Amino acid sequence: MQFIADNFSKIFFSLTGIILLVVLIKNYAKIKTFIMEVKAELTKVSWSSRDELIGSTFVIIGITFIIALFVGMIDLILSKILSLLFR
Fold this sequence. Notes:
The chain is mainly α. Helix content is 87%, strand content 0%.
C-alpha cells in the first residue's frame, strides 16, 4: 500500500497513457477521417492578409483603450458621487 501512495502520480499517468493509447488504437480510422476532413475544411477558409490582420489588431487595441477610458471615467464619477452621498 505504501508503494501505491509513494508512486501514485506515476501510476496515474501510466494508466492514463495506456487508456489513451488503447482509445487511439481502437479509433484510429475515425481519428484519421476526422483529421482529413479538418484539413479539407481548412483549405476552404478565407484567411486574412497580413495588412488586414495588422489593421484589425490596431482597431481592436484602440477600441479597447477607448472603452477602458470610458469605464474608468464612469467609475471615477460614480465613486465621487457615492463618497459625497455617504459622507
